[in-house]
Amino acid sequence: MALLTQTQISAALSELKQWTNLNGKLHREYTFPYFAHAIGFMATAALQIEKNNHHPEWSNVYNRVTVDLTTHDAGGITKNDVDLAIYLEGLAQRLS
Question: What's the whole-number mean pLDDT along residues 38-60?
Fold first, then answer.
């Protein structure tokens, strides 16, 4: 999997409005109404994540889910990370 260029990452972030490039990873913090919503988001996403075999670095504290995306095998951000960010955005919108 090829690393994205800074131009490609910037283009992706222009579409993923609440995502940033933090320490060489696509980064986003989601806030949900309650803990159950945050866990539901993670559990629902986990099915697609496992299917794609591309796993995020993420954590949950009460109603927040923090996500960092990078492709460790490639050493940075790839199309897989952008695709997962797009999927997570769509899922979060459906669950909100």
Answer: 96
Quick one: pLDDT band at residue 36, thresholds 50, 70, 90? very high
Cβ-based neighbours of 37, under 8 Å, separated by 6 or more: 63, 95
Record the tokens describing residue 39, joined without a space: 């866990």
For residue 20, what are the β-bridge partners?
27
pLDDT at 82: 98
Task: Give a yes or no: residue 10 inside a domain.
Answer: yes
For residue 16, the one-letter residue type is L
* pTM of the full structure: 0.95
Nearest 5 degrees, angle CA 52-CA 54-CA 56? 135
DSSP code, position 16: S
62: domain CATH number? 3.30.1360.20
